[in-house]
């Protein structure tokens, strides 16, 4: 049977009595069809379902099946039932949906952009345009949209025969049906739509575009209306105030101050890197004074708490001079680092010794015969050093 869609005639009705036409158990739910309903079906025309109850039983889902609206309940119902729709959720959807009509109108009017996609979710709404938009175009469309809201224009829903509807200069070509439901925003827009809308544009409160991104060959625009826009403003304003307090500056100075901090940070990072390199050079020079000389080669064996990056840097500096070989180890909480190297004029079998030491610390890593590094999880740095010393000397 055809379910009479009361939400089409009046979006503000939240309580209604209806007769159960059928109630059939399917898996864990009962599929309930009524002679009439105020429940909007899920994702019909891009809008989510209404929340609410039927005779006190929570409505799990609402589906459109041909001319029928199917309500999914966990318990069976019969006879006359009382429908109750959560108006908070419904009104929020009405605000977003009517806002979409207005924003789509503004983008079409100002820039000739057609809305080719619409998605209304529980937290945000998007429309897809077939044109590319700049930031300035978005601002202009936002301003026109909000002007239409302030003018508090009447929004009406009327049924038209298909041919009559085509005479209305519709912003989007409708699907060919005998009858079309046209949503008109006084003096502005006529558009075929089956959703729920506010009666006056002023009820939308505000339209704020929050994001735009390139989508396919056009633009996806994300926006918020009414309470959602207010909630978003509260969060963002708090965030700005917190940041202002943190940086002890006015909100309009935040960007300048953050850029300054980032630049300073970049300079400091560079300074630290330069100082680190200088410090490693100093450490390398100090290690040469303890080198053990054998057959004209100076051997450096050392254990420290440097990280593997610094060990490598120190080793590289040591072997820049001819006739140097170095075995450097370090230990931290749960890692053991090993770096070995020799000057380019030498040809000690470093790789072989490295592999033996690597096995001692259960290390992972490698390199060429002149510079090798690994990190292991066995804290046996001293053993490693001893093995290298005994093999090399
Ligand atoms: Zn609509």
UniProtKB/TrEMBL annotation:
Pfam families: DHHA1, tRNA_SAD
Residue stretches making up the Alanyl-transfer RNA synthetases family profile domain: 1-220
GO cellular component annotations of the record: cytoplasm
Domain of life: Bacteria
PROSITE patterns: AA_TRNA_LIGASE_II_ALA
Segments passing through the bilayer: none
GO terms for biological process, alphabetical: alanyl-tRNA aminoacylation
Gene3D superfamilies noted in UniProt: 2.40.30.130, 3.10.310.40, Threonyl-trna Synthetase, Chain A, domain 2
Protein keywords: Coiled coil, Metal-binding, Plasmid, Zinc
Cofactor dependence: Zn(2+)
Residues in coiled coil: 251-285
A single GO molecular function term of this UniProt record: ATP binding
Primary localisation category: cytoplasm
Subcellular location: Cytoplasm
KW Coiled coil (keyword) present: yes
PANTHER family named in the record: ALANYL-TRNA EDITING PROTEIN, ALANYL-TRNA EDITING PROTEIN AARSD1
The protein, known as: Alanyl-tRNA editing protein AlaX-L
